[in-house]
Amino acid sequence: MTLEGRACNLVSESDIERFERSAVARLKELGMRITEPRRKVLRALATSRRPLGAYQIRDNVQREGGKVDVVSVYRILAALVEAGLAHHIGTVDGYLACTGHHSGAHGTEHLICQKCGCVEELPIPNPALAEIGVAASRMGFLSDLTRVEVLGVCEHCR
Ligand SMILES: [Zn+2]
Ligand SMILES: [Zn+2]
Ligand SMILES: [Zn+2]
Q1: Burial 55-72 (b: 16+ CB within 10 A, else e)
Q2: Taking the complete model, does pTM exceed 0.85, yes or no?
Q3: Which of 1, 22, 41, 128 has its CB surrounded by the most CB atoms within 10 Å?
Q4: Could you tell me the residue ranges of all domains in the chain?
Q5: How close is the Cα of 22 to the center of ligand 2, in Å?
Q6: 3-152 in CATH: which number?
Q7: Ligand 1 centre and the CA of 142: distance in Å?
Q8: Distance from Cα 100 to the centre of ligand 2, integer Å
Q9: Opening angle at CA 92, ends 126 and 48, nearest 5
C-alpha cells in the first residue's frame, strides 16, 4: 500500500469513539441489546475506512481479545445494516460503518477507491435518486432500495 493511500484510511480515535457512541445510542433506541460481540464488531467497523469481510472482522475481534465466530459476525452485521449503522458494499463484498447522517436502512451511495480501497459515503440529492426510481417504474419495475457504487481513484491517491 502506498503512503498517500494510508492517509484516508486512518481513522482518528475520536472518530471511532463518536461512531461507537452514536451506534450504541441507536441500538438502544431500537431496543436492541448492546452485547459484547456487537460492541466488538462495531469497533472493528469503526476503525476501518475500507469495507471488511466477516472473516476479517472476526480476526480483528479476536486480535482485540474478543470471542466471536463468523456465523455470529454475519448475524450481527445483518442487524447493523438493518439498523442503518453499516452498509454492505457489493462491489467489494465488504461491510462499512455508516458515516452518513440518516436513520434506518437506506440506499447506499458510495465512492470506492480502487487504489487504496477507501470508501466514502456520497451524499446524492434526493431528486437524482428519485429519477432512478422513475426510470425503473417506466420499465414496470418497482424499486425498493437504490444502491450506487462509484469506482475510481480517491483524492489522496490521485
Ligand atoms: Zn481515499
Ligand atoms: Zn450510510
Ligand atoms: Zn485511495
Answers
A1: ebbbebbeeeebebeeeb
A2: yes
A3: 41
A4: 3-152
A5: 13
A6: 1.10.10.10
A7: 34
A8: 4
A9: 85
Instruction: Identify the pLDDT of residue 30.
Output: 93
- Please write the tens of the pLDDT for every residue from 111-130: 999 999 999 988 877 788 88
112 C-alpha to center of ligand 1: Å? Answer: 8
Q: Residue 123 burial by CB count (10 A; 0-12/13-18/19+): exposed, middle or buried? A: exposed
CA of 137 to the centre of ligand 2 (A): 25
Determine the distance separating the centroid of ligand 1 and the alpha carbon of 140, expressed in angstroms: 38
Give whole-number Cα distances, 29 to 55, 63, 98, 103, in Å: 29, 30, 17, 11
pLDDT above 90 for 103: no
Mean pLDDT over all residues of the chain?
Answer: 89
